Amino acid sequence: MVTMTTAQNALKEIYLDVVSNQLNTKTNVLFNQFKQTSSDIYGREVQRLVPYGVNGGVGAGDEGGALPSSEGNSYVNFTSTLKNLFGSLEISDKAIRVSSDDAGAFVNLLTAEMEGLVSASKFNLGRMLYGNGTGKLADVASANVSANTITVSSVQNLMEGMVVDFYNSSTPVTGFTGVRISKIDRDNKKITLNAVVTSNFSSNASSYSIYVQGSKDQELTGLEAIFAQSGNIYGLSRSTYPWLTSYLKTKTNQETFDEALIQATMDEVELRTGNKMNFLVTTNALKRKFASVLRTMSQNLDVETLDGGYKALSFNGIPIYGDKFVPDGVLYMLNTDDFKLHQLCDWEWLTNEDGSILKQKQGYASYLATLVKYAELVCSRPGAQGKMANLS
């Protein structure tokens, strides 16, 4: 007979390893390139001592002259808060009771819920990697009260079923926190919510932005934060430490997106920093265009198989991959050896005071289980990465 105890044992002993493996190796190809480590964790923070520049104890001189003075490496301390990554599943009491005498039915129920949790977690983890840490999904362009729809700047980071919050700058919009997206018209960038779009909302729509529920300013430090051209990163100011600012190449209208432009940009990054790129990631549209350029030049299209079974084009021996979460017109040039996902622990179930995993949802006939990971993405050389923008 299936009981709450057997359900919790299944979550802990059977599903946890499978889920952890899926999220750690199958989230997306870029996530797979980053090493995961439990080092440099101090309390709630990642604190990583990072060298920069070159050793100063080098020089040349007379045969009988003084030796170069001893000047060691220069160091700074990167500090960032561990981010709290959660994923919850909900099982109704009725569903558990219905399948209590049928182990097969219960396994099917639990498997379906876990697959949904994994799918949603992969989507959000993949999206975070390219974000700026704010959790912002899109800006609101307008609202249609009669049609109960909202037009947004982009649907790239949105998915049916997502629960989101609306903000006016730093202020939550009354009545529009914890609302669910029920439908998306991707061609026209319109979304429908499980909340009524009021006239007050529509009159101020253009000043609103959409965030993942409860996640505003709480997400991983993604690529857009690392490639920002001003402000702070890992507790340090880019104006004080200019070497923290990554190289940005904005294509002009007179330039053509082709092999030569990509190589010239990579050469510039290496000239400035000495860093060699080993991974390129762009939009699927630009990856297809680049493949077309190579065909036009009568060049063979080399394909690499990456960790996780992903396929990528090869550009002079460097994989170039297309990802749906990369911003339009952007190509990132990375040395993935400079990135690490620092984590307090791998994925674990959040337990209650009595050690149980499933907990009744207050006021409802259902039970919740929450998967948790405390982690932060740190790039030890943010200024030694490259980005191309305005590509078409």
Provide structural commentary.
The chain is built from eight helices and 25 strands. It is an alpha+beta fold and about 400 residues long. The protein folds into three domains: about 5-55 and about 75-130 and about 340-380, Major capsid protein gp5 fold, CATH 3.30.2400; about 135-210; about 245-340 and about 385-390, 2-Layer Sandwich (capsid protein of prophage fold), CATH 3.30.1930.10. The strands form five sheets. A seven-stranded mixed sheet has the order 15-25-20-16-19-18-17, with helices on one face. Strands 1, 5, 21, 22, 23 and 24 form a six-stranded mixed sheet that branches. Helix 1 (about 5-25) runs parallel beside helix 4 (about 105-130). The protein is globular. The N and C termini lie far apart (about 60 Å).
Summarize this entry quickly.
This protein has 8 helices and 25 strands. It is an alpha+beta fold and 392 residues long.
Mean pLDDT: 89
Number of domains: 3
Q: Find the CATH topology of the largest domain.
A: Major capsid protein gp5 fold
Number of strands: 25
Rg to the nearest angstrom? 24 Å
What is the molecular shape?
Answer: globular
Features:
32% strand; alpha+beta; capsid protein of prophage fold; 8 helices; 392 residues; Major capsid protein gp5 fold; 7-stranded mixed beta sheet; 6-stranded mixed beta sheet; 25% helix; globular
